[in-house]
């Protein structure tokens, strides 16, 4: 695990789904911080939801949840940061703009994804939505992940690059335009 700078989260912009985590849906046009919010080691923001990791490696998500992208087991919107799962051993979290799925890494390199799974963007072997963090059985360790609007890529510990999900324009880099529901090596 790499050391990460700890800093308070600055919040601003559109807040129609409560994605700023302030308990309301008012827009913020200037940066603000939540009172007594503490520090974060990582924050990822999408179009309608946000997730962050605390110094104790706890993962919290908030905002829109129409596809289960908050990982809380339901489809209910949250306007305040809410803890995901019971284990506090998260390293990084990734979300893309216009994405309704989330992926994150545990400290030991295990990859989890959840939310909308059209075209296999969760990399779990199917296209079924997940409302809690899910892992592909038997999968090896990962170093990093990058989430796109409809696809995801990741770097494994052996330095091999894999991508999965929507591939209509060949964005997965695998030499064709077929969607992939599991991580596929480039």
How many helices in DSSP terms?
0
Q: Supply the CATH class.
A: Mainly Beta
* Radius of gyration (Å): 16 Å
* Count of the separate structural domains: 1
- Secondary structure category: mainly beta
Helix content: under 10%
Distance between the ends: 25 Å
Order of helices and strands: EEEEEEEEEEEEEE
Secondary structure topology:
Blueprint: E1 11-13, E2 28-32, E3 42-45, E4 49-53, E5 59-63, E6 78-83, E7 90-94, E8 101-106, E9 111-115, E10 130-134, E11 142-147, E12 151-156, E13 161-165, E14 180-185
Antiparallel strand pairs: 1-2, 3-4, 4-5, 5-6, 7-8, 8-9, 9-10, 11-12, 12-13, 13-14
Keywords:
single chain; 186 residues; mainly beta; Methylamine Dehydrogenase, Chain H; 4-stranded antiparallel β-sheet; globular
3D structure, described in words:
By secondary structure, the chain is mainly β. It has a single domain, classed as Regulator of chromosome condensation 1/beta-lactamase-inhibitor protein II (Methylamine Dehydrogenase, Chain H). Helices cover 0% and strands 39% of the residues. The protein has no helices and 14 strands. Strands 3-4-5-6 form a 4-stranded antiparallel beta sheet, with no helix packed on it. A hairpin with a 4-residue loop joins strand 12 and strand 13. The chain is globular and about 45 Å long. The mean pLDDT is 87.
Outline:
By secondary structure, the chain is an all-beta fold. It has strands at residues 11-13, 28-32, 42-45, 49-53, 59-63, 78-83, 90-94, 101-106, 111-115, 130-134, 142-147, 151-156, 161-165, 180-185.
